[in-house]
Request: fold
Amino acid sequence: MIPDGTTSKDPTKMPDAKGPSEQTETAPPREATRARTAEGHAVNVSDLHAYYGANEAVKGIDISFPPNEVTAIIGPSGCGKSTMVRCINRMHEEIPGARATGAVKLDDLDLYAAGVDVTAVRRLIGMVFQKANPFPTMSIFDNVAAGLRLTGQRGSDLRETVHKALRSVGLWEEVKNRLNAPGIGLSGGQQQRLCIARTVAVGPEVILMDEPCSALDPVATLKVEELIDELKERYTIVIVTHNMQQAARVADSTVFMLDGLVVEHGPTTEMFTNPSDERTERYVTGKFG
Amino acid sequence: MSAITQLPQISARRRATDRAMRGVLWTATGIALIPLVLVIYYLIHKGAGQWTSNFFTTDPNGNFFGNHGGIRSAIFGTLELIGIASAIAIPVGIAVALYLTEYGKDSLFANVVRYFVDVMTGVPSIVFGLFIYIVLVVSKVGGSGFAGWKGALAVTLLMLPIVIRSSEVVLLLVPSSLREAALALGSPRWRVITRVVLPTSASGLVTGSLLAVARGMGETAPLLFTVSYTMTATGNPNTLMNTLPVQIYNDIHSPEPAVIARAWGAALTLVAIVLILNLLARAISRRSRMA
Reply:
């Protein structure tokens, strides 16, 4: 195995998505089995346009997401927040008729360049969805292992990574005695943390969260927010949220979007106390949207 | 405001309508049940008496007097034939359904395929038999005219649209959020299909395929002029075969009551085989879901 911190921390090298055999040869041990340095990776979006058929949902956006920071995206429904985030790991194009133009860069690597393997992009940039969606046919263990099995991890390596992923989302104590129980038997909040564990286990550099708490009760929400705070030590996090308080609690910087465009992007405290754009002020104070 | 002491009155007319509707639905269910129950009743009443060990272990011998023989060769033939047909129709059918739901979606080609599958569902089974007869039997493909595998192909054609249609419906029920979750983990599409889509829809796929198997097993018309009829059991699919439906068809024309009775026994056997397959497949799909 290649020691940590060399190939693994260089996102200009894509993880090999071709075959599990090569993977075990060249790939470094993924996330949970290696000690992470505190260095995350930056995502830069420039001139991003996204379409659903003829309908333009994102109309030319430039944002940079700094490493090891939580960036919240706020804005009224239909402003293109989710679409923009789904463009970052190229999930947008999975919708029939959808396409995107522009550039999304992970450090120096253009994710939209020709010949880029989308499955490799998605392994570097994980995603957590609005509604917890554990695989219904799989046990708790298998849910977390689902992504890892793709890279050819087996046996005790796999078990180790799964256990660490479950610990890192604070689910270990709750499920350690029933790892073989079905994942859908957990409560809503536990399911969402399971989905985060599943994402973390693959060892991404960036985690995208699309309204991860909108289906959770306040206690579960708090747990996920605490988790986000811990995760940012190792990952760059982008979180879409409808909950202004949540943005204020977890985000280092906040982006306000309106009608497919970025209105304002600044440090969270400034955005909520002293926004420079009048529309931002009216939105964060609840006067419209 | 005074406290509520009485629930609001529901008008007598509304209550009468409710009762009438309930009565109508009960009656409709009852009417539908009558023929079903009668069929089962007659099958058991007339067929169960035929079920002796001899009945299952001897071939029909064509004797007009005395011992007429059992249905061993017919059971053999039907199982071989449906085995071949299922081995082709189920994987191909599920593959087509996967293409339609996972790749083709709303493309023109996918819709053309859907249209032809729908048309094929409505084609009478005798037409498939005729097609195979002209293409494979008349030209004596494989050396002989009538052959078991040719009948199996006719049944395959019949089963295919049923498998495709029922599988597509089941695959569409798999929530797209699960596909997204798997894709977002960096799974290639074929992995999403084998690890998420197929396991999630397994029990539905089994049910749909069984429907097709049951349909195929009872078909008589396409077998009459593709497989024809013989009395002896054979493991060679390139020769004439006996099958349960054709045996029933032949026996029922006999003037000899004992031979007609054998037809009832064979019919009950056919239904019993379908039932056993059904239970088996259900048990298997349930176990695989737990694993």
